[in-house]
């Protein structure tokens, strides 16, 4: 790869077309004593679950075990925390956001790769431009096409006259109020999905009582403990939202 004259240290670096790591499995238990650390069968996929996630199945024989709820809460936390992190780090033009852009290197092959696997992403001094230092010359046109087609960037990268493997993106000014609103919307979506998880589990409690798998007193206790778990996690969302807003506004 041709050497770049930039002195800035790359924010991301990876080998070309590096094989993707297997996604980590989320834990099937949480810290509260109400969640058992025993093994569980896997619950059927729910339409509200994040793609690729797996969660333990609730068991009427152990109604105070909320491993299924804790697992879904942890999955949602990982997903939405990442969204807030990207918004805090500079919104659209952060190295993480640019690096996540999907690129199709070969027209005949529908497979796509994150831009971070095809290039180093280097913010230039002054913060007004970002350089994409491509690993291969063949990536130039596919990367340009991906950037132009992306609603997040929607611009034509400029070629560097001194380096055929370098493309330059112009960093557009971002309205802080708009970014704050996106952070709040993401946080609210996080809360709504958590409430949906809780409601799903409450319906299971009602079903178990109707089927005489649990007695009414145990059903009420399960509902109460479930609400405590949700309330605890809601405080985590509130803190994450407040931190994101402060950083964006600052």
TrEMBL record:
This protein's UniProt keywords: Protein biosynthesis
Signal peptide (UniProt feature, chain positions): none
Keyword Protein biosynthesis recorded: yes
Domain of life: Eukaryota
Database matches in Gene3D superfamilies: 3.30.1360.40, Ribosome-recycling factor
Region (Disordered): 1-65
GO terms of biological process kind: translation
MF-aspect GO terms: ribosomal large subunit binding
Function: Necessary for protein synthesis in mitochondria. Functions as a ribosome recycling factor in mitochondria.
Similarity field: Belongs to the RRF family.
Protein name according to UniProt: Putative ribosomal recycling factor
Organism: Colletotrichum sublineola (Sorghum anthracnose fungus)
């Amino acid at each position: 790869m041709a050497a770049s004259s930039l002195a800035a240290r790359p924010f991301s670096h990876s080998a070309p077309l590096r094989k993707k790591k297997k996604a980590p499995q989320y834990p099937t238990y949480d810290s509260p004593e109400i969640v058992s650390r025993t093994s569980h069968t896997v619950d059927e996929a729910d339409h509200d679950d994040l793609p690729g996630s797996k969660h333990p199945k609730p068991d009427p024989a152990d109604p105070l075990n909320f491993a299924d709820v804790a697992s879904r809460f942890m999955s949602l936390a990982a997903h939405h925390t990442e969204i807030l992190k990207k918004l805090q780090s500079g919104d659209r033009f952060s190295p993480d956001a640019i690096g996540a852009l999907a690129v199709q290197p070969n027209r005949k092959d529908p497979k796509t790769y994150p831009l971070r696997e095809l290039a180093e992403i280097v913010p230039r001094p002054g913060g007004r431009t970002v350089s994409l230092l491509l690993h291969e010359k063949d990536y130039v046109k596919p990367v340009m096409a991906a950037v132009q087609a992306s609603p997040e960037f929607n611009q034509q990268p400029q070629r560097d006259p001194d380096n055929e493997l370098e493309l330059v993106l112009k960093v557009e000014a971002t309205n802080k109020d708009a970014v704050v609103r996106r952070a709040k919307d993401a946080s609210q979506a996080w809360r709504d999905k958590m409430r949906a998880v809780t409601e799903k589990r409450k319906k299971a409690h009602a079903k178990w009582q109707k089927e005489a798998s649990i007695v009414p007193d145990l059903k009420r206790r399960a509902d109460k403990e479930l609400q405590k778990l949700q309330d605890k996690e809601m405080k985590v969302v509130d803190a994450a939202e407040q931190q994101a807003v402060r950083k964006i506004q600052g």
